[in-house]
């Protein structure tokens, strides 16, 4: 899929990596037809991630990992992006052929009023396309005019916020999320994600750290709707019961059971276990705060989860 660089759109892709030798080649080779530059921001991998990435022509910059938002923000600054467009993509994601063709065909002809492009997310879990349960409706802004987009300062579920302009939906194909790692890695990752979600939910309740509230006024209606569901409806529902109700509506009312055996594993683990674990961590953190106050919350996070300075770094103009 290597093409002459002159034929490629003016796009710089930024990829965050840590021990991703199983994914990095697939990710980069699917980016090469649409990117004039690929920059991997690595957190000092100890496998062959860096070797493979450089062998494929990608640039590699290394920085200690603190959080997804901070790492990506650091990467954009360190890479000194000069292309017309910037793309954000994870190592275990890749572009479908139809999406590649549409980006090559249409990106250069979009009107100046379009400053961001939305991609539809397709999750493949253990070889199974997760079509049902409402999950194949996720649309993400992952491509934007350089200088217009920035990442939210959150510990989890961070979105790309556009300073101005409108979004254009690219429908030629999907952005595919397909991890090739084992279930032990998956559960360990989601255990960590549950901790990060807990920090964000506790911060909603107590405003311990600065809040980045730019998404509340962003033009991305889909992201604002999901954020409303998460921060208002879900956050206001009874602890633990909300995890049960979320799974019921996703698996039964939204027909998640049609995804078959592997679909059941996905919906149960990601749509029930993960949310129940998150609530258990929130419950535990609430008891900690009730006993010792919010002043000791940072020490609690470091002592319990090894997380230091639990606030994403942000400049004053980025945080409301």
Topology:
Elements lengths: L10 E7 L6 H8 L5 E6 L6 H7 L3 E4 L5 H12 L5 E6 L2 E3 L1 H10 L7 E12 L2 E2 L9 E7 L3 E3 L8 E3 L3 E12 L5 H24 L14 H16 L4 H13 L6 H33 L4 H9 L15
Parallel strand pairs: 1-2, 1-4, 2-3, 6-11
Antiparallel strand pairs: 4-8, 5-11, 6-7, 6-8, 9-10
Helix pairs in contact: 5-8, 7-8
Organism: Sphingomonas donggukensis
Pfam families: Glycos_transf_2
Keywords: Membrane, Transmembrane, Transmembrane helix
Please give a handful of descriptors for the protein shown:
single chain; 11 strands; 20% strand; 41% helix; disordered N terminus; Spore Coat Polysaccharide Biosynthesis Protein SpsA, Chain A; disordered C terminus; two-stranded antiparallel sheet; 320 residues
Structure commentary:
The chain crosses the membrane at residues 232-252, 264-280. Keywords: Membrane, Transmembrane, Transmembrane helix. Residues 13-104 form the Glycosyltransferase 2-like domain. This is Glycosyltransferase family 2 protein. The chain has 320 residues and is α/β, with parallel strands linked by helices. The chain folds into two domains: 1-92, Spore Coat Polysaccharide Biosynthesis Protein SpsA, Chain A (Alpha-Beta Complex), CATH 3.90.550; 183-318, no CATH class. Helices cover 41% and strands 20% of the residues. The chain contains nine helices and eleven strands. The protein has helices at 24-31, 49-55, 68-79, 97-106, 183-206, 221-236, 241-253, 260-292, 297-305, and strands at 11-17, 37-42, 59-62, 85-90, 93-95, 114-125, 128-129, 139-145, 149-151, 160-162, 166-177. The strands form two sheets. Strands 1, 2, 3, 4, 5, 6, 7, 8 and 11 form a nine-stranded mixed sheet that branches. A two-stranded antiparallel ribbon has the order 9-10. β6 (114-125) and β7 form a beta hairpin. α5 (183-206) crosses α8. The radius of gyration is 20 Å and the shape is globular.
């Amino acid at each position: 899929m290597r093409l002459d660089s002159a034929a490629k759109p003016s796009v710089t892709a930024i990829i965050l990596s840590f021990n991703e030798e199983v994914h990095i080649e697939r990710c980069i080779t699917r980016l090469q037809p649409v990117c004039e530059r690929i920059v991997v921001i690595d957190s000092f991998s100890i496998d062959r991630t860096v070797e493979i990435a450089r062998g494929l022509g990608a640039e590699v910059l290394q920085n200690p990992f603190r959080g997804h938002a901070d790492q990506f923000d650091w990467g954009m600054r360190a890479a000194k992006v000069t292309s017309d467009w910037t793309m954000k993509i994870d190592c275990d994601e890749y572009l479908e052929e139809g999406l590649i063709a549409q980006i090559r065909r249409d990106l250069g002809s979009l009107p100046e009023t379009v400053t961001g492009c939305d991609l539809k997310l397709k999750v493949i879990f253990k070889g199974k396309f997760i079509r049902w349960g409402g999950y194949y409706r996720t649309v993400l802004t992952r491509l934007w005019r350089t200088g217009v987009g920035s990442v939210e300062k959150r510990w989890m579920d961070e979105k790309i916020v556009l300073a101005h302009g409108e979004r254009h939906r690219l429908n030629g194909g999907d952005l595919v999320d397909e991890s090739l790692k084992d279930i032990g890695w998956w559960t360990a990752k989601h255990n960590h994600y549950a901790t990060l979600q807990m920090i964000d939910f506790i911060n909603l309740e107590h405003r311990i750290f600065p809040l980045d509230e730019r998404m509340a006024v962003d033009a991305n209606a889909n992201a604002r709707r999901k954020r409303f569901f998460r921060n208002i409806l879900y956050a206001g529902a009874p602890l633990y019961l909300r995890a049960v109700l979320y799974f019921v509506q996703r698996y039964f009312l939204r027909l998640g059971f049609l995804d078959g055996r592997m679909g059941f594993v996905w919906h149960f683990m990601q749509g029930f276990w993960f949310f129940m674990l998150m609530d258990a961590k929130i419950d535990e953190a609430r008891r900690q705060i009730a006993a010792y106050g919010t002043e000791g919350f940072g020490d609690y996070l470091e002592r319990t989860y090894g997380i230091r300075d639990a606030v994403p770094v942000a400049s004053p103009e980025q945080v409301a």
